[in-house]
Amino acid sequence: MSHELPRTADVAIAGGGIMGSAIAYFLLADPAFDGRVVVVEQDPSYEHCAAVRSTGGIRQQWSTPENVDMCQFGAWFFKHVGELLAVGDDVPDIGFKERGYLFLLDETNAPALERNLEMQRARGAATLALDPGELARRFPWLRVDDLVGGHLGPRDEGWYDPWALLRAFRAKAIALGASYRHDTVVRIARSGARVTGLTLASGARVDADIVVCAAGALGAARLMATAGLELPVEPRKRHVYVVDVRGEFPGFPVTLDTSEVFCRPEGTSFLVALAPRADEPDPACTDREVDHERFERLVWPRIAHRIPAFEALRMRGAWACHYDYNVVDQNAIIGAHPTVANLLVASGFSGHGVMQSPATGRAVAELVTTGGYRSLDLRRFDYARFARGEAVVEGRVY
Questions:
Q1: Sheet strands (E) in the chain
Q2: Cα–Cα dist 129/76, whole Å
Q3: How far is the CA of 247 from the CAs of 199, 269, 271, 309, 313, in angstroms?
Q4: Residue 106 to residues 132, 149, 153: CA-CA distances in angstroms?
Q5: Cβ proximity of 245 and 308 under 8 Å
Q6: Beta strands 101-105 and 149-152: pairing type?
Q7: How far is Cα 72 from Cα 340, in angstroms, rounded to an integer?
Q8: What are phi and psi of 214, to 5 degrees?
Q9: What is the pLDDT of residue 8?
Q10: Is 176 left (phi over 0), alpha (psi -120 to 50) or beta?
Q11: Phi, psi (rounded to 5 degrees) for 188
């Protein structure tokens, strides 16, 4: 890794987390790209990085076709991480557990989820529709008397170690020639219809032909504002609770209840989470304080209703993280700004950035090297859709 920051770059990336590192990797792995890449990251420990604090899932069950496409590629990439991101004899292992996502259905949510099923299958997903009897046979620990069914993805869905994935992307990008700098980007420098580089807190500057804003929840909108541009992304706090439960739970997949409680195994424990519902306040927030009362009041009763053994759970720990929440349609914002063509954005993933990091890294690299998409057509996620009034609303955000 270079300890001296180059003063010029072909591509300067603000943010060296999962998205910035994936973009750097895909750029430098492309034989058609022979430029210099500089990545600026304010916290190389990644202690508070959203990707590291995520639950590390991947699924094909979406309401937006492009999200299915991105996660199809993501699942393939995760299965081949060892060969793709190896650095010499260091072969990364992200511990991908292909155990599926189980979306539970009641009378309220069933119509919407059933409409998505045909689209998912048409795009390569293996989603199964299970009736209550089949649910009970497969998952005897699950309460099913108030369900009308469930959708299970038996292939290309499950979970992995997001910290291992981030380390692997970063290490491979550095091995391919990326220069990483521990500093804070305080401004995207702009001159008329172009950006010219990054200004750093240390007083240094990186002049660049192309700038990519991949700063994440706590920095993306602020940085875009320094260039006089708006980005409809806010930091929204989410909680993950770690619990121990006694019992046998054969075949436990990532489970999404009708109450929107999320649960998956983590070693001998379980991760449990609950996104705010439509009638709950969900303000922009930057603090990391854990709301334990929320667990007692909302999360525990819901997960215990669905999985009776969780009545006797024991709390082991908890943490808070921040989504880069797209307040318009909860989908990614990928591509060039409509009025500043050499400024690219990868933001607004609203909680599904880690699973979409391979597809996003490849997509942004294609935009840089060819000026367009060559693999997946992600034009619906462009920045200009907001001005056009063409929101792409994702109905499956957790």
A1: 8-14, 37-41, 57-58, 101-105, 128-130, 149-152, 158-159, 179-182, 185-191, 194-200, 205-213, 233-244, 254-256, 261-266, 269-274, 314-326, 333-337, 340-347
A2: 23
A3: 55, 11, 16, 7, 10
A4: 10, 7, 18
A5: no
A6: antiparallel
A7: 31
A8: -130, 40
A9: 86
A10: alpha
A11: -95, 115
pLDDT tens digits, 299-348:
999 999 999 999 999 999 999 999 999 999 999 999 999 999 999 999 99
- Token representation of residue 156: 């290309």
| Integer-rounded Cα radius of gyration of the chain | 21
C-beta separation of 150 from 106 below 8 A: no
- Under the banding of pLDDT at 50, 70 and 90, the label for residue 281 is confident
Instruction: Give SS3 for 94.
Output: coil
SS (H, E, C) 37-76: EEEEECCCCCCCCCCCCCCCEECCCCCCHHHHHHHHHHHH
- β-bridge pairing 233-244 and 269-274: antiparallel
pLDDT tops 90 at residue 280: no
Q: What distance in Å separates the CA atoms of residue 244 and residue 242, rounded to the nearest whole number?
A: 7
371 has a pLDDT exceeding 70: yes
C-beta separation of 324 from 220 below 8 A: yes
Q: Cβ neighbours of residue 296 under 8 Å, at least 6 residues apart?
A: none
Q: What would the mean pLDDT of 157-184 be, rounded to a whole number?
A: 98
**Distances from the Cα of 135 to the Cα of 104, 143, 170, 247, angstroms:** 9, 9, 41, 18
Task: Output phi, psi for 325, to 5 deg.
Answer: -85, 115
The residue type at 174? I
**Crossing angle of helices 110-122/65-79, nearest 10°?**
60
- CB atoms closer than 10 angstroms to residue 162: 23
